[in-house]
Specification:
By secondary structure, the protein is an all-beta fold. 2% of the residues lie in helices and 44% in strands. The longest helix has 7 residues, at 471-477. The protein starts with a strand and ends in a 42-residue tail after the last helix.
């Protein structure tokens, strides 16, 4: 018997990465999934993962797709030779797919649970247009760019760039953004591709979002004015647009107005995808989704990518995972009525970050060892680790492309007994950095993190407020479990700079927060207390069932919500737009 599946995934280089897969007996019943980038590479064994499609008739696999001609999802190989591939509504080919794209994959799984056929692969960006403003966060690892009224968080490490870099993004660049919603109206970019250096009159642009400020001829998408008087309407079923509709708008810029030629109704309570796909989801269907927590009320009511989730009885991995707005998670469960009843939730972005050179690789175990601060840290990879090459030497990265001496930037989840990489970026050599939770410290000389005791005797310290401070004041505020970043700028194995970091959310999450909920305070989104539930931590990846040089003013007071209190009028509390 075959199983029909639907997966929302990300294309990674010459690979596809499934974020979620839902399979059902071939009775015409589908699910739909949303997520964030995860990957396994061709030639890499399935490290630390129980693979395959499993479940009671309608199993869920939260996994990866790898390669063209065949797609691997949690150990299941799907043929893609005859798959239809669509990009922004137009037929495309495998060569058009690339790192960081969010794609929807549909197909079938054979009875053996190991092979199947991918029938359709769909890519649709979130916004494409000129950058109107750019601001840098205080740590210099994230920026907020505004494109057609959409505030987009881009990360130095967490965003894939094509035709541009994090450092060279400039006002006026026309970019295509793929990603997922965060906060009230923000987007977090998984991929930014530069299309041109300036907007050409008559060129098509597009944006997605919720309608507000509706009149007979105009509407607003976030802060972008849209003239829809001559637009073709799709999926509205003989009605006009209404405030609150989640739509995709395509058209051209005339002055500051987007003159729409086409508007499609996309959103629903079951997620921001085509309205027609609503019929593919039925009560009792297994359902898998990934993204940032939004509109958090309680563990029994929050949203991920437009889907209402009840995780009150869900298993958590790590077991101390705390749900707050902005935390990136993966959710598995079943569809009931108008919400997803979660059986399992996982942290999908890590607080532990390393920038250092590789000193050892083990292809069998899938481990990468890095030398820093006079010691070595070993990081495991698994089927959901993304590998990206920021040096431009490889369009698509695999574990086998890593070499001794490569300088890499790693994001990982620390499970106590092991460290699992969520992302590995190969980059040009830079300062050695380690961001991790404090295990112990001896004031004012050493701090132990990730098993390394680091000398901080001659370091510059930055306090929780972001201001420089002395060693005594820093250590007076320091506690075991606090997240800190240590930098070695001269390669002597000692820290030259030590600062507190915000835990639980990806870079820029607090700096550019447009959600004024009270729980967005400085704290971990999971704690490492001994809660007696280490078993859940152990199966984090084992359970398949469940320098500003471009003149754009980055960081110098030109743009919104940089957390610097510069009074530029473009603050972090842009919460009057309804993008839910």
């Amino acid at each position: 018997m075959k199983h029909v599946f639907t997966a929302l995934a990300f294309a990674v280089g010459a690979s596809l990465v499934a974020v979620g897969v839902e399979s059902h007996p071939a009775s015409g019943r589908f699910g739909a999934l949303f997520g964030t980038i995860q990957t396994m590479r061709s030639g890499q064994s399935a490290i630390n993962s129980t693979l395959g499609i499993s479940g009671s008739g309608r199993p869920v696999a939260l996994g990866t797709i790898d390669g063209f001609g065949s797609i691997f999802v949690n150990g299941v190989e799907f043929e893609t030779d005859d798959a239809q591939i669509f990009l922004d509504g137009q037929r495309g080919s495998e060569a058009d797919l690339d790192v960081g794209m969010v794609v929807l994959v549909k197909g079938s799984v054979n009875a053996d649970g190991k092979t199947g056929i991918a029938e359709t692969v769909i890519f649709d960006d979130e916004v494409e247009g000129p950058i109107a403003a750019i601001s840098m966060n205080t740590d210099g690892d994230a920026k907020l760019i505004t494109v057609l009224g959409a505030d987009v968080i881009v990360e130095k490490t967490g965003t894939v760039f094509e035709g541009v870099t994090f450092d060279t993004l400039a006002v006026g660049d026309v970019v295509e953004v793929s990603g997922f919603p965060e906060g009230i109206a923000n987007l977090r970019a998984t991929r930014v591709e530069k299309k041109s250096s300036r907007y050409t009159a008559g060129s098509q642009i597009e944006v997605k979002g919720s309608v507000s400020g509706l009149t007979d001829t105009t509407l607003m998408i976030r802060d972008q004015l849209v003239d829809y008087s001559g637009a073709k309407l799709s999926e509205f079923k003989n009605r006009s647009p209404a405030d609150g509709d989640y739509v995709e708008v395509k058209g051209i810029l005339q002055g500051n107005t987007l003159v729409a030629s086409y508007i499609e109704l996309e959103g629903s309570s079951r997620g921001n995808f085509s309205h027609d796909d609503d019929a593919l989801i039925n009560d009792g269907d297994d359902y898998s989704i990934q993204g940032a927590v939004r509109n958090y009320v309680s563990d029994a009511q929050f949203e991920v990518n437009g889907v209402v989730v009840d995780a009150s009885n869900a298993v958590r991995v790590p077991s101390g995972l705390r749900l707050i707005n902005g935390v990136a998670i993966g959710v598995q469960g079943s569809w009931q009525g108008e919400r997803l009843i979660a059986s399992r939730i996982e942290a999908r972005r890590g607080d532990l970050e390393i920038e250092a050179s590789i000193v050892r690789l083990d292809a069998i175990l899938g481990t990468v060892s890095l030398e820093l601060f006079g010691g070595t840290v070993t990081v495991e990879t698994d089927v959901q680790t993304l590998l990206d090459d920021d040096t431009g030497s490889r369009r698509s990265m695999t574990f086998s492309d890593l070499r001794l001496g490569d300088f890499v930037e790693i994001e990982a989840v620390d499970l106590g007994d092991r460290i699992i990489a969520t992302r590995i970026d190969r980059d040009y050599p830079d300062d050695v950095e380690l961001q991790a939770a404090v295990e112990s410290f001896s004031a004012p000389s050493t701090i132990t993190v990730a098993g390394l005791t680091v000398s901080v005797s001659n370091a510059r310290f930055e306090g929780k407020s972001g201001a420089n401070t002395d060693a005594d004041s820093f250590f007076a505020d320091l506690a075991v479990g606090d997240l800190v970043k240590l930098e070695d700028r001269n390669g002597d194995g000692a820290a030259d700079n030590v600062e507190f970091e915000n835990a639980g959310r990806p870079d820029g999450g607090y700096d550019f927060d447009d959600d004024d909920e009270d729980d967005d305070s400085y704290q971990n989104s999971w704690d490492d207390a001994d809660d007696g539930d280490e078993a859940n931590d152990d199966d984090f990846d084992n359970d398949s069932s469940e320098d500003d040089d471009d003149g754009d003013g980055d960081g110098d007071g030109d743009g919104g919500g940089d957390g610097n209190g510069d009074g530029d009028g473009d603050d972090d509390d842009d919460d009057d737009d309804d993008d839910d």
